Request: fold
Amino acid sequence: MQTEGGGQVARSDGVKVAPFMLCALVPLAACTAHESLGMNLGITVDAGAGGATGTDAAVRADVAVSADTADGRPVAALLPTLPKPKESCPTLAGLSGSNLTLLGSAVTIWSGPAGSVGPMVFYWHATSATSEEAVAGLGPGTAEVVRSGGVIASFTKSNGTGSNTGDYTWYTGDFGTADEVLACANQQGLIDPTHIHSAGYSPGSCQTAAMVYARAYLASVLCYSGGAWTLGQLPDPTNPPALVGAHGAVGSDVFGIDIATNTILFENDLKGKGSFVIDCDDGGDHLQSGPARMAGVAAPAWQFFKDHPYKVEPKPYKSVPSTFPSYCKLM
Reply:
């Protein structure tokens, strides 16, 4: 793993830790060896506080969504404010792991047929992995989206702008690329604005956690072994995203620092802000337990995304669904 810079951050116990150690490299066996696998919101991200200012914090309170659905699942009562494209959009419909370039960055896209609508999901891979990690990380998600609708965007590598969010794999400037994907998908009528989600592994998990503090449109997120480098304020305090946090045992899920503790700190911060949080401690380590961690959590977490749209009320779950591994619990 390559490291850069000399900055340090403080853990909860006061120990200074180099930022590159906070979310470490995970050479997942499930990842393939080949390399394949965003709009201007007027946001200024404060890397120290993890917050954001600008139009991203605004919420459209004037649009209601019907509470009646064919499958009986809960739906959101409001729609988030979404970005507008900064450049001409490529056609996003009908793709199955194809690479596109948006704002100069390569993104791997899985998407439904033109005319179909589904979730918008961002995926951020681990340091040594590729964008194809999204297939394992999202369980049935990629195949379901291609078949039924929606867009999954898995990023190939960082554009290197803004602030580092983990081990110098991802930066806050990459959120601009995510905004562009979202804007284009929305412009083309491919996504449900109440179902915008993010997931990632190790530094990709740190990136997802940082995104929670930077983008108000997220409905729910999935973090595999990694929390926020710096805890911050939500851009819209009335929208605390629901969270599934999956990690190994404290003292075992370690790479430089205790990654399990890092994840739990993030879970507790979101819980304190009003998020619904499921914690999944499989007792494993950081390097070898990755594929099994994904295999156990990915499918129920995909359903968790479906059941937790933007600002959903009442909360859909009163307990952890039986589809989750037995080691998962409510925070």
Remarks:
- The domain at 42-330 is CATH 3.40.50.1820 (Rossmann fold).
- Helices lie at 133-137, 141-148, 174-187, 203-212, 259-272, 290-307.
- Residues 1-71 have pLDDT under 50 and may be disordered.
- The chain has one domain: 42-330.
